[in-house]
Design goal:
Number of helices: 5
CATH class: Alpha Beta
Strand content: 15-25%
Radius of gyration: 13 Å
Number of strands: 5
CATH superfamily: Response regulator
Shape: globular
Structural class: alpha/beta
């Protein structure tokens, strides 16, 4: 069975770059630019890993937390990587309290993300 990864970011270039980098035999990659699209995917598929940006172009600026909560509620075993360009210790602490497996601040070396995926059993 293929492993599925959902990548959520409001920057199309980031989504496409990540998809290209992480796609390989045995790994299905889905991409979403909005909270609504991410929730739709989460309702339709089981994901091994969700990689989400903290701040999408939504109203509250904390969509990453909402995606993290939603992922964990529907599938507690899904691993979540939260990424942000607006990091601070409070966001990091809350991310881990909500069940994030990893928290990274931008810019992130691609190798770091690839190693995190490997640690989570994808890649």
């Amino acid at each position: 069975m293929d492993k599925r990864v959902l990548i959520v970011d409001d920057e199309t270039t980031t989504l496409l770059a990540y998809k290209k980098l992480f796609q390989k035999p045995g790994v299905e990659i889905d991409i979403a630019e909005t909270l609504e699209k991410a929730k739709s995917f989460l309702n339709s598929y089981y994901y091994h890993v969700v990689i989400t940006d903290f701040r999408l172009s939504g109203k509250n600026g904390e969509e990453g937390f909402e995606i993290l909560r939603y992922s964990k509620k529907s599938h507690p075993e899904t691993k979540v990587i939260l990424i942000t360009a607006y990091g601070n210790p409070n966001i990091k602490e809350e991310a881990y309290n909500l069940g994030a497996s990893y928290y990274f601040e931008k810019p992130i070396p691609i190798k770091t993300l690839q190693e995190a995926l490997q640690q989570l059993g994808v890649g």
